[in-house]
User: What shape does this take?
Amino acid sequence: MARRPIIVIAPDSFKGSISANAAAMAIAQGLARVWPDAELRLCPMADGGEGTLDAILSRGGQRRSARVSGAGGMPIDAAYGSIDAGATAVIEAAQVVGLTDPAGTAIDVERRSTKGVGELIRAAFDVGARRFMIGLGGSSTNDGGAGMLVALGLSLADAAGRIIDPTPEATAALAAVDATRLDTRLARARFTIMSDVSNPLTGSDGATAVFGSQKGVRAERIGELDARLARFAALAEKAIGRAAEDKPGAGAAGGLGFALLLIGLDAALDGADWLITGEGRTDKQTLLGKTPWVVARRGAQAQVPATLISGGIDRVALPALAERFAGCFSLADGPMTLEDCVANAARLLADRAEQAGRLYAAARGAGAA
Amino acid sequence: MARRPIIVIAPDSFKGSISANAAAMAIAQGLARVWPDAELRLCPMADGGEGTLDAILSRGGQRRSARVSGAGGMPIDAAYGSIDAGATAVIEAAQVVGLTDPAGTAIDVERRSTKGVGELIRAAFDVGARRFMIGLGGSSTNDGGAGMLVALGLSLADAAGRIIDPTPEATAALAAVDATRLDTRLARARFTIMSDVSNPLTGSDGATAVFGSQKGVRAERIGELDARLARFAALAEKAIGRAAEDKPGAGAAGGLGFALLLIGLDAALDGADWLITGEGRTDKQTLLGKTPWVVARRGAQAQVPATLISGGIDRVALPALAERFAGCFSLADGPMTLEDCVANAARLLADRAEQAGRLYAAARGAGAA
Assistant: This one.
């Protein structure tokens, strides 16, 4: 092999047996047997909410903390993880702007922002992190990630040029977005989103319409707030020079997904050689847009082949799956019961990932020769 | 993909479900979905005896016939197959020198030879064949393939320089072998052996000691005939400039395996990119030298990675298997019963080969990029 491969590991949960985090770790374990030195980018397609940080730190790394702004502006000590000898920071948005934080949710959703998430990214930058794994589940905000971007140097202004806050309330007056003072470290940073949400930022499937009510957005405000997000998105996209509003996942965490996609679109796939995804059971539902299908489509856009490892693969769906995936493999290592498969999912997944890795390595060797 | 891949398909039978021939065809069917234009070299590790020709012709091609010498020298009309638009000839040694041919076996085994097999190869050359699939099971001869080589231009002489017959009886006087008039078409021909025998030509595991008695070699003659084969082999190897006596499979068909290996050593693997083998069940017995293990070792010698597809793969054996195979995959596409797996083996095998092929193709593309 010419160089160490870069492999993105982005499974869904294996329903009824192991979580997306556990699945990603099992796949990583199997691949490490093939390539001890591979760059494995874990992007479990979990909700990325509470528990994500703990799960990742259970493999190693250090827990750190920084004082940042909570959703409502009050200071909060937010935990984050430092892995890969400090090169990668693991951030859980819910640690900063969590739905379960009473101080944050005491403030109206229209006055909450994700500023603290940006501050946490800055804190991690300051201690050497260059890669970020960001879990998006369980947030209380609906600011389109404007707060995070502002904390990283974006500025928002009204028609008179006055700086305004990155809250849904204040952005009623938004007229201009300036990205010229965006943190220059972002250009070399890489963001990997951990999320199971594939909604776009705005519209009837967007963050506000779908997730707004659980965060306290009143039904009659949905249209207005959605329009504010759309205007912010249009201005931010123009200022930064990229588009993300319609990307699947832009609507995660009240639009924090949008902001991250804007500064680090599908960064996990940048330069990657191979993508492994998975789920508990694959059938025609998968073809309609379940996680592995969406992941594979993103892979295809980035020209990274995607391989599927699944608890079971429906034969009727296989021809259509074969068009999308660079190989679909079952967990089963022979005739076995569903109970055995579920009970041993992690081990079977590691073994299957290893075997697929061995074939990949051999083929890659052949191709390069 | 830079060019169409060359893939060798060399499964054992899937015991209790499908034959090696059927397994090879199922794998070929799956791979053809990935690469309609791949060069697929089918080498089912079956005994290669009666039925092989019919099984292969059931996929297409034409049945032909040529008048050649039977084992005892009497003319015989031997059937052979013409596939790949005539480029490949399928020859069953048993059609020429079969154990069930009464005219051949009426002659003492020490006077029988495989001359007719060489004549049949010549006949196929004459009508355009350049590749040969040769089944070795069910032969009545024990001439080390000397007859076949003589029919193709080798000459055997005694100490006085007199030409002698390629029979065990006549080679008692063998003193010299001349390969200078060997059919020049052999240099561009490719021979693929279909056989489940891995014995060497001579010695206690050799053709005479192990298979001689069933062909009529008397116990007290084994030592002498084995020594004659050894002398013939040494002289033929020197004349042709290759070695094959100790190769696994040289002892097949009374040493016809040796002669074919001598003129087309593991030809199926020449220039091949990938090798797929398989069997019904893989466990620690496989590690002790079952067909897929031997096939993979040959692949390794020729620097062709070997992938295993098996009905079931024992987890205890998997780490050792992983050292040898470029991926081990089960037939199962999810939790299933043994009965289902057996009943659907051909379909499952085609699907698994296809999926492995898709991963291989993607990885090879990546490697070449």
